[in-house]
Design goal:
Blueprint lengths: L1 H22 L12 E7 L2 H6 L3 H8 L2 E7 L1 H14 L5 E4 L1 H11 L6 H5 L15 H6 L1 E2 L2 E2 L2 E13 H6 L8 H11 L3 E2 L2 E2 L13 H10 L16 H17 L9 H9 L5 E5 L3 H4 L11 E4 L13 E8 L5 H14 L2 H9 L7 H5 L1 H5 L4 H13 L11 H16 L4 H15 L3
Helix pairs in contact: 1-15, 10-11, 11-19, 19-20
Length: 435
Amino acid sequence: MRKALKFVALAGLLCTSLISASASAQIDWKQSQGTEIRFLMNKHPFTTYIEPKVAEFEKLTGIKVVIEAFPEDQYRNKLTIELNSGGKVDGYMIMPGQDDLYYSKAGWLQPLDAYIADPKLTDRSWDPKDFFASFAKASSVDGKQIGVVINAETSLLAYRKDLFAKFKQKVPTTMKELEATAKFFHGKEVDGKKLVGITLRGKKAAATSQWVDFLYSFGGSWTNAQGKSNFASPEDIAAFKFYGDLLRNYGPQGGTMLHWAESTSAFMEGKAAMIYDANVFKALYENPKESKVAGLVGYAVIPAGPKGLRLPHVSNWSLSIAKASTPERQKAAWLFVQWATNKENCLGALLAGVPSGRKSSWDSKEYKANDKQPDWTAATMKSFDIGQGQWNPPVINVPEIRDITGQVIVDAIEGKDVAASARKAAELMDKKMER
């Protein structure tokens, strides 16, 4: 009850600050009064947070907002069909790392730079510089901003603080140390059970979203300067081999069948000393009803590669505006996007459990007062600062290229000739890439 009252109080403070911000606004929020706009949304935690607040925006602007939300697979299908057929869609959610090139080539994305730069359309308090630069870059195509981040994710190394303290082990800061630490813990008997040193995703395409952090940290890349596959390079091969060796030698049995659910379950069961996966899984690790390691987990940025690089990926959902919408509705849609991503709403979403793309949200007194894992926050902030937004291959046919990549990961886990597998994948990728 006390916790509920605390969040009610926070909500009240946020509403007060929103009213104050509106009262001191630098733009005319009524400039598109009478316009109706339609947004298609994924049933995402941000949608759950913002939808009940839409009435506030409608009162502020006189704009009618129709939001239609669907589960992700259904949402993606419906959005593609409507954008293809020229349906009345004014705005929508997009995962830039997955869809930006495809949507851009299809002509579905309205650049936002002119809206952001227009003092009559964008209130000074919106403060675009408050967004982490890595997410602004991730939501851009050819230097043009095509979305505004509404949730921010990265991946972290999570580890058992109690075991590291008991066995006097330091948190690894390099890949060499990571391998040594995984080796140290692998096979250690704790509470009558033998540990594995680390658990990672290993299931073909599903593993690519975590392996990519190793790729970048080893100095590798998806493509080279000529736009061809870079998989046959020494750096890419080293990343494939290290990841595969790590999971094969020090991970759970059946590594090639590990998706995020299986990997996180192994960690939550207390079977692994470490895990590398999405930072949002903190909610799973720290849930005492589901996790045996709740309260025992520490968090750190990805260890540095051989040349000192630490480049975790950053991923996000963003709000975008449909290029086919009319100019008047586009303007109204921008006012909605701007309002939905203002400082007050981003903080409110963070307090509701949606990682914010704004620095001010994480620095706020409200968030810090409720932060029970400050090392998770610090590692997340560091990863946001240094993160790489290209977590998927820079192509239109992302799923096909991820499948090709995933096969090399599987071969590496199975101890096959990684260099030969990578060269074969590079040739296949060059044939299949669509740009």
